[in-house]
Amino acid sequence: MLSDTERQEIESHLAEYPYKRAACIEALKVVQRERGWVSDENLRDVAALLEMTPDELDNVATFYNLIFRQPVGKHVILLCDSVSCWIMGYPNIRRRIQERLGIDFGETTPDGNYTLLPVVCLGDCDHAPVMMIDEDHHRDLDEGKVDRILESYREEA
Amino acid sequence: MESPLTRNIQPDRVPLDIKAVKRAGGYEALRKALKSMTPAEVTDTVKRSDLKGRGGAGFPTGPKWSFVPMGPEAPRPKYLVVNADEMEPGTFKDRLLLEGDPHQLIEGTILAAYAIQAEVGYIFLRAEYKEAERRLRKAIAEAYEAGYLGRNILGSAFSAGFNFELHLHVSAGRYMCGEETGLLNSLEGRRATPRAKPPFPQVSGLWGQPTIVNNVETLSCVPHIINNGPDWFKQLSYTEDGGTKIFGASGRVNHPGLWELPLGTTLRELIFEHAGGMKPGYQFRGVLPGGASTDFLTEEHLDVKLDFTSVQKAGSRLGTGTAIVLDDQTCPVGMVLNLERFFAQESCGWCTPCREGLPWIANTLEALEEGEGLPGDLDLLASHTRKLGPGNTFCALAPGAMEPLQSALKYFRADFERHIEEKRCPWRN
User: Fold this and answer.
1) Which residues of B touch A83 (CB under 8 A)?
2) Which residue of B has its CA nearest to A66?
3) Omega before residue B198 within 30° of 0, cis
4) What is the pLDDT of residues B30-41, one digit of tens each?
5) Mean pLDDT for chain A overall
6) Does the beta-carbon distance from B91 to A83 stay under 8 Å?
């Protein structure tokens, strides 16, 4: 069941488009903001609200890199693996995160605190290498900086 | 040297609020157009300025607008879509304009909408640009409040009650959304697969209605063209293409960054003056002049003028104008592998050459990097650059992906051969 807040927020976007399905990506993100990911049940509820079949909506949901159809950790690390970051030392950053957290791309730490995912160029190429954690951009990364950043999210937990 | 696009952008990028924007001359062009210019005059002014699209393809903006059906018989509504889905690897210039001066973009968008008589607009923004999203939301609200958006804009009798609603649409991450027709499918709530052309979006685009899709930087130029005229805009550049351009550089240069410079600035000036040359201990080997889907240029091309025609003559494309520099301590094969993995991942899977060809290319390059390359591999790669080239695929993704590969095979062939002969990547072990 969608919460009242989710339902209201999704409905508030409907006026922006002439057809309901145009709001489907935004609707999936509304659910994801509340729950972290989109379960099969959530997907069916959103589809019903937007007068789509669950298959039509899943067809869209599985296309977009930032819609999660599996559970993710409390914090999602999006590490840029595109060319400028690669030149500027992305492989070392990836290795450091792997060593510190014991997870590779697509995995979540056993305590459920972090999920690590690759992301397409974050548009911060003059500060490469870069990553995002949740909604925050972290730039000019080196191994020491990665340690400090990961530590700061752990304290928050 | 004038820099109209960035003149109101602060070093920390915190944008001016609408009062300060107005004091600095913001929305004067909109006032001028709505009180004294017909839509056709706006289009004609942009046409005469020689503004070409800044999203990568360089299509002339004025002529693009003039394909939209006009007059009382034209289908309604018409749409104006802003492509703010900046995801081309190595490209970070629209972000500066979105974060630093959202009102400039909004004014340009309203002017474009007026020119084609669009009723509704969408800014299609990539999800990761959170700061841009917050600032655009604020700026759009301010523009509604000031009467620049909504019904009967500026209450002008001359423009006969021009109405325009502007919405912010935030995407969920997929490079294909940058492709014009993929973007339109995505806006409709579908997978961002490309559409067959014709019909072109100008005639049948969003929900089958006439639609113009323009890049952020392109639209940001428009208020200045209306304010100062097409001749002024043309003389900003060193060459026949009008205007300035936000150029950028990343990689192992001393001062990676962004600069607004005249079109026609040389590659040498960009890399060795503005970007400060190579970091100590690194030599320049090559550069992708305008994002991941442009051909490499090398030392011999440093005096090429960075405008659409000159870069094309040199065998590459101006693309997005953000240069990615290859140094002597970075493996060119590894760099191309990184690029092709990206394209293989982001292929939408709609057409076979792209869906099947790109992973095959990435795997072949990976084998070279792992010391498992075979003597026939370079011919195989070369044949793919033709099979995935223009005309064989549904959209420009795969042909774009072939540009860095075909030029790397040309300029760094000896490096590819060393990987096969030595059965290893000479840069890694």
Assistant:
1) 89-90, 288, 292, 324, 335, 338-339, 342
2) B172
3) yes
4) 999 999 999 999
5) 96
6) no
Q: Which of A51, A5, A39 is nearest to B189 (CA)?
A: A51
Distance, in Å, from the CA atom of A43 to the CA atom of A154, rounded to the nearest integer, reads 31
Closest partner residue to B171 among A19, A25, A119, by Cβ?
A25
Q: Is the ipTM of this complex over 0.95?
A: yes
Q: Rounded to whole angstroms, how far apart are CA atoms B7 and A19? A: 40
Residue B127 at interface with chain A, using a CB cutoff of 8 Å: yes
**Chain B 302-341, CB below 8 Å of chain A: which residues?**
322, 324-327, 330, 334-335, 338-339
Spatial strand order in the sheet of A75-80: A107-108, A114-119, A75-80, A131-133, A136-138
Task: Determine, for residues B292 and A82 on separate chains, whether the beta-carbon distance falls below 8 Å.
Answer: yes
Name the percent of chain B lying above pLDDT 70: 100
pTM of the predicted protein model: 0.97
Closest CA–CA distance from residue A114 to any residue of chain B (Å): 18
What is the pLDDT, as a whole number, of residue B156? 78
Interface A-B: count of C-beta contacts within 8 A: 130
Residues B177, B346: Cα–Cα separation, whole Å: 10
The pLDDT of B12-29, averaged and rounded, is 96
Residue pair B308/B108 in contact (Cβ under 8 Å)? The answer is no
* Chain B residues touching residue A121 (CB < 8 angstroms): 87-92
- Tell me which residues of chain B, numbers 274 to 293, contact chain A at a CB-CB cutoff of 8 Å: 288, 292
Whether the predicted pLDDT of B429 surpasses 70: no
Percent over 90 (pLDDT), chain A: 96
Taking the C-alpha atoms of residue B151 and residue B144, their distance in angstroms, rounded to an integer, is 9
The pLDDT value recorded for residue B273 is: 98
> B58-73 as b/e, with b when 16 or more CB fall inside 10 Å?
bebbbebbbebebeee
CA distance B273 to A138: 28
Residue in chain B nearest A55 by alpha carbon: B190
pLDDT value of residue B160: 79
CB contact under 8 Å between B292 and A64, yes or no, is no
The closest of B274, B275, B241, B244 to B261, measured between CA atoms, is B244
Average pLDDT rounded to a whole number, residues B416-420 = 97
Please indicate whether, in this complex, the C-beta atoms of A125 and B189 are within 8 angstroms of each other.
Answer: no
Q: How far apart are CA B274 and CA B258, in angstroms?
A: 9
- Grade residue A155 by pLDDT with cuts at 50, 70 and 90: low
**What average pLDDT does the segment A77-94 reach?**
98
